[in-house]
């Protein structure tokens, strides 16, 4: 068991991000078994779940636009995604093989129509908090390890925010998979490194 100040954050290991899902990440299901294996090593365990209303403004369908194009939102440029992780749907459920029983907390994010939320800590305006920072600090956590989907979006944003909030941050790359669209993986790795995140 790791020391009491360490948490694992398992980001968005959900059906829609796994093969066959609405926003499938190649190899997304390969990380499930090894995540199950390391989860019990951490004294604090948090799972996140992307959780959107069916008319969420990150969906291309709401803009009559093609998926994977971009639009300008009040908080900046937003990638327009296929409809995914709709509240209560099978696609939004955790991968059936993910062992969710050891989790202490499930953080849902992206539930406000007007704003996307890649990060487990802040919505995409980078200021509206999810509450996770307070939860972790209240539990005495100062060190976090991130795994999950997708490396270049939700893992990246969560890791960079965690570093910005003063946590010591490691991303285990072998327990993540990327969307890797339009150079996003290389950009994400550069952003994480720049923020002081350890890529292991
Ligand atoms: C994610 C795109 C849209 C992710 C979530 O979990 O990385 N990516 N919503
Ligand atoms: Zn989403």
The largest beta-sheet arranges its strands as: 5-2-1-6-7-8
Q: Determine the N-to-C terminus distance.
A: 19 Å
Describe the largest sheet. Answer: 6 strands, parallel
Ligand roster: pyrazine-2-carboxylic acid, zinc ion
Gyration radius, to the nearest Å? 16 Å
Average pLDDT taken over every residue: 98
Count the DSSP helices: 4
Overall outline: globular
Secondary-structure element series: EHEEEEHEHEHE
Number of strands: 8
Low-confidence stretches: none
| Structural class by helix and strand composition | alpha/beta
Helix percent reads 10-25%
Strand proportion, as a percent range, falls in 15-25%
Tell me what the structure shows.
The structure is a single chain. With 200 residues, the protein is α/β, with parallel strands linked by helices. Helix content is 20%, strand content 22%. It has helices at residues 32-38, 132-138, 151-164, 184-194, and strands at 6-11, 44-50, 70-73, 76-79, 105-109, 143-149, 168-177, 198-199. The chain has a six-stranded parallel β-sheet. Strands 3-4 form a two-stranded antiparallel ribbon. β6 (143-149), α3 (151-164) and β7 form a beta-alpha-beta unit. α3 packs parallel to α4. It is globular, with a radius of gyration of 16 Å. The two termini are 19 Å apart. The model has no long low-confidence stretch (mean pLDDT 98). Pyrazine-2-carboxylic acid binds next to α3.
């Amino acid at each position: 068991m790791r020391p009491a100040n360490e948490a694992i954050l398992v980001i968005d290991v959900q059906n829609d991000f796994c093969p066959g899902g609405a926003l499938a990440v190649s190899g997304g299901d390969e990380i499930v078994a090894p995540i199950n294996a390391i989860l019990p090593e951490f004294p604090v365990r948090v799972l996140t779940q992307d959780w959107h209303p069916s008319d969420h403004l990150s969906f291309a369908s709401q803009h009559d636009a093609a998926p994977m194009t971009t639009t300008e939102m009040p908080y900046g440029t937003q990638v327009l995604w296929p409809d995914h992780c709709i509240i209560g749907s099978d696609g939004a459920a955790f991968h059936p093989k993910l062992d969710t029983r050891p989790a202490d907390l499930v953080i849902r994010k992206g539930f406000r129509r007007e704003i996307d939320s890649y990060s487990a800590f802040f919505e995409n305006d980078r200021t509206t908090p999810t509450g996770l920072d307070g939860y972790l600090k209240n539990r005495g956590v100062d060190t976090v390890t991130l795994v999950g989907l997708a490396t270049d979006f939700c893992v990246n944003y969560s890791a960079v925010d965690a570093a910005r909030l003063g946590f010591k941050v490691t991303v285990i790359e072998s327990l993540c998979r990327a969307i890797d669209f339009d150079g996003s993986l290389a950009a994400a790795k550069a952003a994480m490194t720049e923020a002081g995140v350890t890529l292991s």
